[in-house]
Amino acid sequence: MTIRTTTPNPLDTPSVPVQVKLAAAWTSFMFLYAYVDVLNFYKPGVVDDILAGVVFEFDVSPTLLTVFLVTVSIPALMVMLAIMLPARVNRATNLVVASLLVPYSMFNAVGESWDWAFFYGISIGLELLILAFILRSAWAWPRTPAVSAGSAATDQRQGRRG
Question: Is there a contact between 97 and 3 (Cβ–Cβ < 8 Å)?
Answer without folding.
Answer: no
